[in-house]
Amino acid sequence: MPNVTLDKTDLKILHLLQNDARISNTELADRIGLSPSPCLRRVRALEENGVIRRYAGIVDARQVGLPISVFVNVSLRSQERSGLEEFEQQIQGYPEVMECYLMTGSFDYMLRVVVPDLDHYQRFLADKLTRIRSVANIQSSMTLKQVVYKTALPLGIDVQ
């Protein structure tokens, strides 16, 4: 359930910004059928309400020497709050960790880690991940090929 009520115009704005955050306010307004001032007010409201958290450029990992993606399943020794907090605090400081999710099921966390090569991944495991006291078990899966990668959420709106 969303915390902010979004109308069709808000969803159009979000759709367009997700696909091109560099779109000018004038072009954005034109594409959604508003004049620039009300369009800018809506964008600012979406930012202030935390719907738009930030703007970012999407960098090709291979082009910057980070071709290895690893999905890592981590089980903790116990699921006590202190162990969860310790793990979450530690993992946030590791630049290799692109995503971290607390999970249901047979492991506690799933990470997506990017590294330039397997030697770097081995060092990440040995020097960082295995040194977190609450970690009991680690299972790694190396990706072979990225089939789908999206950053835009499916908002259920189509803007031409």
CATH class category of the largest domain: Alpha Beta
What are the segments in which pLDDT stays under 50 over at least 5 consecutive residues?
Answer: none
Strand content: 15-25%
Helix content: 25-40%
Give the structure's gist in a few sentences.
By secondary structure, this protein is of the alpha+beta class. The protein has helices at residues 8-19, 25-32, 36-48, 81-91, 118-127; strands spanning 68-76, 97-102, 109-115, 135-142. A hairpin with a 6-residue loop joins β2 and β3 (109-115).
Describe the structure.
The chain is built from five helices and four strands. With 160 residues, the protein is α+β, with helices and mostly antiparallel strands. A hairpin with a 6-residue loop joins strand 2 and strand 3. Helix 2 crosses helix 3. The chain starts with 7 loop residues before the first helix and ends in an 18-residue tail after the last strand. 12% of the residues are buried. The model has no long low-confidence stretch (mean pLDDT 95).
